[in-house]
Amino acid sequence: MDWGEVHRRIGASMRQERSEEEVARILGVRARKLASGKWKEESSLVECIEFAASSNSFVIEMEHVREICQLDAITPLPCTPDFVLGVSNVRGEIVSVLDILVLVGMQPETEDHDRLIVLDAGDLRFGLAADFILGAKYIRRDEIHPSQSCKFLYGMLGRAMVIDAGRLMKDPGIIVKEDVDYR
Questions:
Q1: What pLDDT, in 10s, does the model give residues 32-49?
Q2: What's the confidence (pLDDT) of residue 39?
């Protein structure tokens, strides 16, 4: 590759002013694209985080992710469902830590969680334990193969399970309100 030529072409394109006709042509193409509905296809792209838990891969929309942080320690809580691993301190805030594997009906293979994916729905905040983050990527909703196996999953994207974070965060079963009689 001739990098000198590449730099020359980039420089030339940056100095070039567009004529009124060229601007009108570009705007016309954009208007026709909007009118045809093709913009909807592009808007079906969703930014997601892919992470691993045990030997499984999961994908979750970034829209619901507040932050991803190191999971230093989990303090177990008595009298909680199996999907609650405990709580963790995230910069002075106590955050419930949930096991996504148990939530989707699978058996955890390890408890070697290194990352916490903190989800935020305004008044509800909790974290999903992850072994490691595989990366961020854009996915197309129409590439997800629907699944009826679990209410918290949209479906599958290749080998990754796509989490329905909106449904997960609205599910009343996520909120643990058990009273314990200590007498």
A1: 776 765 444 555 788 999
A2: 47
Q: How far is CA 86 from CA 66, 103, 126, in A?
A: 19, 14, 11
Using CA atoms, how far apart are residues 164 and 124, in angstroms rounded to an integer? 16
What residue segments make up the domains of the chain, in order of their start?
A: 3-43, 45-174
Nearest alpha carbon to residue 81 among 182, 183, 181, 177: 177
| CATH class for the domain made up of 45-174 | mainly beta
pTM check: above 0.85 = no
Residue 11: partners with Cβ closer than 8 Å, 6 or more residues away: none
Residue type, 13: S
User: 3-state DSSP call for residue 65?
Assistant: strand
Among 87, 59, 84, 55, residue whose Cα is nearest residue 71: 87
Contacts of 166 (CB under 8 A, 6+ apart): 64
